[in-house]
Design a protein that fits this description.
Length: about 80
């Protein structure tokens, strides 16, 4: 189950934030990856989007953040 938020120091990171905001709060992620995914309308592919995954590893937890068009969509 995905968490809705997590803390970077005293700052709260949550879905809807931009990549710039997350970088300002948390610094550089441990790793980054990008995959191209199809955008669908029903069964039709109507385009493509880049989904970027950032991983933050710490002594207490590993958090995986997924961005679509620079907007934080989920935290796992």
């Amino acid at each position: 189950m995905a968490d809705q938020t997590f803390r970077c120091g005293s700052k709260l990171v949550q879905a809807g934030m931009t990549q710039g905001q997350v970088l300002a709060y948390c610094g550089e992620p441990t790793s980054r990856s990008v995959v191209v995914e199809d955008v669908r309308s029903g069964n039709r592919v109507v385009g493509q989007t880049n989904v970027e995954t950032w991983v933050y590893e710490s002594y207490s937890a590993t958090r995986t953040l997924k961005f679509d068009q620079s907007k934080l969509m989920s935290i796992e």
